[in-house]
Design goal:
The protein is of the alpha+beta class. Among the domains are: 191 residues, no CATH class; 221 residues, 3-Layer(aba) Sandwich (Rossmann fold), CATH 3.40.50. The strands form six sheets. Strands 1-5-6-8-7 form a five-stranded mixed β-barrel. A five-stranded parallel sheet has the order 12-15-19-11-20, covered by helices on one side. A two-stranded antiparallel sheet has the order 9-10. The protein is elongated and about 95 Å long.
Length: 624
């Protein structure tokens, strides 16, 4: 007798019943099936009872049950042809039946049945196949919240524990100590004595999917599990995802997907994959997932929707965040305001060759001996849902794969560090730079970073040619001297005292004391809401902006360029949305002009004279 959760544990039973109940020549049965599943999954109580592939070991899942999975599209394969409908004949009785092959990898005919492959009732269709991995750069607080939601499922009484009511993040102590949070995605290549000890407070080394330490750029040893993750992650998961009735071009590389699907773990697939030229891991390591329902995610912040902010609350949150960032920059309010605006920046459009909305920020004059840049990165990771720290040492530049490349023998796209989802805060740490001549590989990686910053594109390497893929990765460059990389805004950090070492630790202790759990959650929601907010420029303000542009060009001896005006407009949007407004007003436009005037007159570095590449990147690295 079917139980109440039959559709969860045996979803193919519901598929089969809906298929059998269809009328003759009824091609709409799959739409009716989707409507049934959508109605069931629209109830959060139902959805939360489904196990999550992100947090459940594969061996605890059963073949054919419904599971959830949140991941990024890392690779895409050719469409797969399958039997949507087929006919079987019972060898004992000769009775024929038409069966459904949807959401299956292996046809379920019994030992006394044969599949009539030449039957007129066979219907062949195709399904899209993509390779999804755990979201690269996802910060620990996001993972913890989602894991708590997966564990605190609604019981028979209907009670539900709110996963947001948690103690203060222990990682706030890491800000004070000046090291990275446990589990936060970081690339590092310079070891220190005792690095392997988790109790000594030093930066933990990156680990691969098997838990072993990973050296950037070095392939996993034989016997290890290579899930092809862009950033090594000990708890990373992957799945081969099969989608039905999806329009061409609907799914793209680096898209974030929230999936509910039928998991396929049949070991027979390891020996009989439909595409013999591909090398797929066995389903016990990389399950196949037949999608029942999916949603493309604009962001991976689980707090949005749980916490709402009014206009006044957004302004008060902005003031508190600006104070915290000012503390982290040792009293420099102007640099802190630019950093705040950078954290909510996004690409809003592309016009000809211009990328609209991006804001690569270079904060320089950061002392490299005090772990200052690492403390700032830890703070960024604590506040944002996704981030990645990339120290630009020679070793890192020459050993790490930055750009994905196509392995035609294995028929897979090998991931690179820059294959990140939109909105991931990439922090480039030039304070780790050392003197020396770069190899060709290092120059290629630096060029890839320059192209990402300038064009918000990543050139995927397909051996005989490259393909440009649009992206939206806010890049923050932290350096001691002027950055060797291009940037949209450069700001010299001016601490409130000369002796930085005397106040650095106290400033970050103040930050640790300020960041209560409630404030942390409000800032996390605030940053995402600002980033996703709609924005318009009224005709009145547009005319005022144009008039100011003409006047500023007349007053400025250096002559404001079109690029300068574009920078003003980018800041104008960010200043407005940072205050919870979806339209620019005169007060905010005046603030933009003040900020840019101060930055251009007092915070710009002298020009670099040793550039040797077209985009200004030198072949020889000099430590700042």
């Amino acid at each position: 007798m079917p139980v109440a959760e039959d559709w969860r544990t045996c979803p193919l039973g519901l598929v089969e019943r809906t298929f059998k109940a269809r009328q003759d020549n009824d091609d709409c049965w799959s739409e009716k099936l989707s409507s049934q599943f959508n109605a069931l999954l629209s109830d959060p109580a139902n959805r939360n009872t489904l196990p999550s592939l992100n947090f459940t070991p594969n061996h605890e899942l059963r073949d054919g049950q419904l599971v959830r999975f949140r991941g990024m599209v890392q690779d895409m394969y050719d469409p797969e042809i399958y039997m949507a409908e087929y006919e079987t004949r019972n060898l004992s009785t000769g009775v024929k039946n038409i069966q459904c092959g949807r959401y299956r990898d292996v046809l379920p005919n019994s030992i006394r049945e044969e599949v009539l492959e030449d039957s007129e009732h066979v219907v062949m269709k195709d399904r899209h196949v993509v390779y999804c991995v755990s979201i690269p750069g996802e910060n620990p607080w996001v993972t913890e919240l989602l894991a708590a939601q997966a564990e605190n499922k609604a019981g028979p009484s209907g009670t539900y524990q709110n996963p947001l009511k948690r103690g203060l993040d222990p990682s706030t102590q890491e800000i004070i100590d000046g090291e990275s949070m446990e589990g936060m995605e970081m690339d590092g290549d310079e070891s220190k004595p005792g690095d392997e000890s988790p109790s000594n407070g030093l930066v933990k080394k990156s680990k691969g999917e098997n838990g072993n330490p990973v050296v950037p750029g070095v392939k996993p040893t034989q016997g290890s599990v290579d899930l092809n993750l862009p950033i090594p992650n000990q708890k990373g998961k992957a799945a081969i995802v099969k989608l039905y009735d999806v329009p061409e071009g609907e799914i793209k590389l680096t898209d974030l997907l929230d999936i509910v699907g039928v998991i396929s773990l049949d070991p027979a697939m390891a020996l009989s994959e439909p595409n013999e030229t591909s090398i797929f891991p066995p389903p016990s390591l990389v399950p196949r997932l037949h999608v029942i329902h999916f949603q493309k995610l604009a962001h991976n912040n689980p707090l949005v929707g749980e916490i709402s902010l009014t206009r006044s609350e957004m302004e008060s949150t902005r003031a508190k965040l600006l104070h915290i960032l000012t503390e982290s920059l040792l009293g420099d309010t102007l640099a802190a305001e630019y950093l705040l605006l950078h954290l909510i920046s996004k690409v809003t459009g592309r016009r000809d060759i211009r990328v609209i909305g991006k804001m690569c920020l270079n904060l320089f004059r950061l002392d490299s001996t005090l772990n200052w840049s690492r403390r700032i990165y830890t703070l960024v990771g604590l506040l944002s849902p996704g981030s990645h720290h990339l120290p630009l040492s020679r070793n890192q530049l020459e050993l790490t794969k930055f750009v994905p490349f196509k392995d035609f023998e294995a028929n897979r796209l090998v991931s690179g560090v820059l294959q990140l989802p939109a909105g991931t805060n990439l922090v480039l740490d030039e304070t780790a730079m050392t003197d020396g001549q770069l190899s060709a590989k290092g120059v290629q990686n630096l060029t890839a970073l320059g192209n990402l910053i300038t064009w918000q594109k990543v050139d995927y390497d397909f051996k005989y040619h490259s393909l440009d893929y649009d992206t939206d990765i806010p890049v923050l460059v932290l350096s001691d001297g002027r950055s060797l990389l291009p940037s949209d805004f450069q700001v010299m950090v001016k601490p409130e005292v000369e002796n930085v070492a005397s106040i650095l630790e106290n400033k970050f202790k103040n930050i640790g004391a300020l960041l209560t759990q409630d404030l942390l959650n409000r800032i996390r929601v605030y940053l995402t809401l600002c980033r996703e907010m709609e924005y318009t420029l009224s005709d009145t303000l547009q005319k005022e902006v144009q008039d100011d542009f003409v006047r500023l060009r007349q007053e400025d001896d250096r002559r404001m360029s079109v690029d300068d005006m574009h920078s003003h407009l980018v800041l104008a949007r960010l200043v407005a949305v940072s205050k919870g407004k979806n339209e620019l007003d005169c007060e905010d436009w005046s603030r933009v002009k003040e900020m840019e005037s101060e930055r251009r007159n007092t915070r710009l570095p002298p020009p670099r004279g040793d550039a040797s590449l077209a985009n200004g990147i030198p072949l020889h690295l000099a430590a700042s």
